[in-house]
Each structure stands twice: as structure tokens, then as C-alpha cells.
Prior knowledge:
This protein is mostly helical. It has one domain (9-308): Rhopdopsin 7-helix transmembrane proteins (Up-down Bundle), CATH 1.20.1070.10. The protein is built from ten helices and three strands, in the order E-H-H-E-H-H-H-E-H-H-H-H-H. The chain has helices at residues 22-49, 56-85, 92-125, 130-133, 136-162, 179-185, 191-224, 229-258, 271-291, 293-308; strands spanning 9-12, 89-91, 171-172. A three-stranded mixed β-sheet has the order 2-1-3. Helix 1 runs parallel beside helix 9 (271-291). The termini are far apart.
Amino acid sequence: MANHSTVTEFIILGLSNVEELMSWLFIVFFLIYLTTVLGNVMIIAAILFESSLHTPMYFFLGNLSFLDMGCSTVILPKMLSNFLFGQKTISFVGCFMQMYFFQLLAGTECFLLAVMAYDRYVAICKPLSYPLIMNQKVCLALLTFSWFGSFLNSTLHTVAASQLTFCGPNGINHFFCDVPPLYKLSCSDTSLNEKVLFTAGVFVGVGPCLFITLSYVIIISAILKITSTEKRIKAFSTCASHLTVVVLFYGTGTFSYIRSLPGFSFDKGKVIPLLYSTVTPMLNPLIYSLRNREVKGVLRRTLWRKVTSGPH
């Protein structure tokens, strides 16, 4: 990562410069992080320890919870430290590491949501062949593809950005080290980097989104052909949680991506990335636990066992 930059550290300008708000912001985002970690750990624990949830759908859900927890952990601890101690600096290497891991985890989530859509397509449109198609080897291969595709994307961005020169100023007008605001600080020509960013956005973001959309067009068409109302409702319910998460993730993610286009002000664009990177990971376990009967049942039984097995 060696280059000719005179900048050795960056300053993350964050969400606000108003000193009186720092304590309140710390409390709000500490609660968001705590809820995110606890919610996703509960989902992962339920899937690991409940044999009835050892199916492809929950295998992917467990990995989604891991990614959500990872995305929040990459961003929020540093943000909380900034709120609490007012220390907004981050080292050159630390900034690039934060950027790399966020790109890696968020990109993997894009691919994984597409994989989960394919899983729902097979379950509803080819139920008799489901165990054969979605076997353990296929699930692991799909998960590996998700990680590998995102690994290539995040490595490409990090290596490309590391070749830029940063002469100052060094204030990142964002709440973490993201790719577009980092480009704004470079005194090098970033036109090639921006083209790479756009191309990668199509591959990592738009591609999976189109695949998910096509999958759900086929899924909904198949569900509408079911004559039994009860079976139709049951089929819809198996997709409802995933579809809600997809809309939330891609809705906020799309606006976050648009903010990086030329002419868009970062001052006006911090709220959407905030939803995309910190609030959505907190809401995902709530969505799955509230809308999914099996997950809700397992969590209820787990909590009940803890209560009844406690000290008498």
C-alpha cells in the first residue's frame, strides 16, 4: 500500500460537529450496535443448536446474520469511540482496512441475498427436486462463490485506491472510510477508479438485484397458480422475510450508491448510507424472528428453557 502520499492519517468528520449531541449519538448507536449483535447472535445460535433448522434456507440465514454483524462491527466501534472520546483520526492503513472489510462483507451480502432467492425459487417451483438440487455441496459452493466474488471486488477497489496520491486535506466527509468520499480527497486523477467503481457496482449490486427480481417474478407466478388458499399463504410466508430484507437492503443500498455519482453532495447523503450500513443489520434479525414462525418458535422455546432451567 506504499505510495507517494503526504497524508499519514485521515479525519472522519462523522455525522455532526455539535459537541452537545455526541453523548446522545453515542447512546443511540451503542443501542443499535448492541441490538444488532444480540439479535444476530440469537439467530445464529438458534440455527446451530436446533436440528429442525438445519436446512439450506437457515444455513444461508445464519451466514446473513454473520455478515450483518460483521458490517456493523467494521463501522460502529470506531464511530462510538469518536462520539465518546472525540478522537476522529484513523491511520492510513486503518482507513483502507475499514474500507476493504466493509466492501467485502456488504458485497458478499449482495450475492448471498441472490443465492437465498434461488433457494426460495427451487423450494417453491421445484419442491420434489429441492433436496437433490440444494444439497450440502451446492450450498457450500454457492456460499463460496458469494465470498469469492466479493473478495475480488473489494481487493480491486482497495488496490486501485492504494495507488492514488493523497496530498491533503485529509478530512473524510463521511462517518467511515468508504470508497467515494476517499476518492474526493485524492490529488490524483480518479476517473479510472470511478469507472471501476461503477462497473463493480453493476456486477456486485445490479446483477444480483436483477437476478432476485427475476426469481420473484417466477416465484409469485407459481404461487398464484396454487389453487389452495392455505398453501398459497404458506408459500408467500416462506418468502416474506427474505423479500422484506431484500427491499430494505437494496432500497437503501441503491440510494447509497447514487450518492457517489458526480454532482451529488455528501452533506446531503449521509442518512441513507447510515440506514444501509448500521440500521438494516439491526432490523434483519427482527424481520426474520417476527415474520418466520419456525425461527420465532425456536427462540421462544430456547428462552423458555433458559427460564425454567434457571436457579430455583
